[in-house]
């Protein structure tokens, strides 16, 4: 197994990637710009998201908010609504705050160095390196999942890429491999190479320009590298949603901080350790919210939906409950619920689970 110190100065590596890249790269809109705002937008959207899935979101954001000032001035609900379906909503909230920070503290111009970019909220090492190199040609190497994989395989690095301490080893190596004359092109190339040639499963080793130098290929370790420890098993949460309705309205509330889906809208919620909510529990839950159940209109069956997040699994049941009368003002204040017409719910940012339920139930 090689160590980083024994892999320094491998000129073939950058050369091979820089020859490979123009022949294989995908034509993507953010590759035609040096505008740090557009580059930042694309990087935020593409974190933990495939290009195919992220592309329409990028196009929506860049056309709705062509400048950082436009994004900063937009209402948060609207920014989150455009994010719907992409997951990891804290990214959208951070993105909005960062835009406001760039406007308030930097006069609407992105900082131009890696060190300054790191001071922006929600901008970590990867994003700062991407903007600094793509927009300003700074020689700082990006490290994302694709880069970890390529380096681990080509140089035979066995450090666990899920362990924070390993990052430094890979960063030192990547910073030594990046050529001063083409940092942007090199960063783009290595990420693209990982995305379409040296893929997690079935990499195209047969037609790979690095085949002769690749440690993993030469030692039959392509499937073992990179080493990545398993994430903890996701915990299961049982959400019992009380979908309270009266006349043509439905009651929803904006979720608070310290849990998943902050800032998104869902229904009144009772969370339990088990999958069932008895009729009595349902009645008590409605009464606790200040509502009066209509005995003639509790609809069955409840719908069950599953939503898998990175670290938890949500099993949701929707209990559609018709109320005798609208919830009184005091109950709305205490519960945070608001009555919306079904049309109004369209414009609210919602977890995809809630959006799917509404679509299935009432469209
Ligand atoms: S030979 Fe295979 S494992 Fe090695 S860099 Fe090329 S595609 Fe990746």
Explain this structure.
- The protein has helices at residues 11-24, 36-46, 51-64, 68-73, 76-83, 90-106, 114-117, 125-136, 145-155, 164-177, 183-196, 215-218, 279-288, 329-335, 342-345, 352-362; strands spanning 235-246, 249-254, 265-266, 268-272, 293-298, 303-308, 312-323, 337-341.
- The chain is built from 16 helices and eight strands.
- By secondary structure, the protein is of the alpha+beta class.
- It has two domains: 4-218, Hypothetical protein, domain 2 (Endonuclease III, domain 1), CATH 1.10.340; 235-362, Nucleoside Triphosphate Pyrophosphohydrolase (Alpha-Beta Complex).
- A hairpin with a 2-residue loop joins strand 1 (235-246) and strand 2.
- Strands 1, 2, 3, 4, 5, 6, 7 and 8 form an eight-stranded mixed sheet that branches.
- The model is unreliable at 1-8 (pLDDT under 50).
């Amino acid at each position: 197994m090689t160590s980083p110190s024994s892999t320094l100065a491998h000129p073939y590596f950058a050369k091979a990637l820089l020859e490979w890249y123009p022949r294989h790269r995908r034509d993507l809109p953010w590759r035609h710009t040096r505008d740090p705002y557009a580059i930042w937008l694309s990087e935020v959207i593409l974190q933990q998201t495939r290009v195919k899935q992220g592309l329409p979101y990028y196009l929506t954001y860049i056309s709705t908010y062509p400048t950082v000032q436009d994004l900063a001035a937009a209402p948060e609900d609207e920014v989150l609504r455009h994010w719907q379906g992409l997951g990891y909503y804290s990214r959208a909230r951070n993105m909005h705050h960062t835009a406001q920070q760039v406007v308030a503290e930097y006069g609407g111009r992105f900082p131009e160095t890696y060190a300054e970019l790191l001071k922006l909220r929600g901008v970590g090492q990867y994003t700062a390196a991407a903007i600094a190199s793509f927009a300003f040609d700074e020689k700082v190497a990006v490290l994302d999942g694709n880069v970890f994989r390529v380096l681990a395989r080509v140089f035979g690095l066995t450090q666990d890429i899920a362990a924070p301490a390993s990052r430094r080893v890979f960063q030192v190596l990547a910073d030594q491999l990046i050529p001063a004359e083409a940092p942007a092109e090199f960063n783009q190339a290595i990420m693209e190479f990982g995305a379409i040639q040296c893929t997690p499963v079935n990499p195209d080793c047969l037609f790979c320009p690095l085949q002769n130098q690749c440690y993993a290929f030469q030692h039959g370790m392509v499937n073992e590298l990179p080493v990545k420890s398993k994430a903890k098993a996701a915990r299961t949460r049982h959400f019992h949603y009380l979908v309270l309705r009266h006349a043509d309205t439905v009651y929803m509330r904006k979720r608070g901080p310290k849990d998943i889906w902050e800032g998104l809208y869902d229904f009144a919620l009772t969370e339990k350790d088990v999958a069932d909510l008895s009729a009595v529990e349902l009645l008590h839950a409605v009464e606790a919210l200040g509502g009066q159940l209509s005995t003639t209109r509790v609809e069955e069956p409840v719908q069950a939906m599953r939503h898998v997040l990175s670290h938890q699994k949500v099993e949701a049941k929707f209990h559609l409950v018709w109320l005798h009368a609208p919830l009184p003002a005091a109950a709305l204040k205490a519960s945070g619920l608001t009555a919306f017409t079904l049309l109004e719910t369209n414009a609210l940012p919602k977890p995809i689970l809630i959006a799917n339920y509404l679509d299935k139930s009432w469209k």
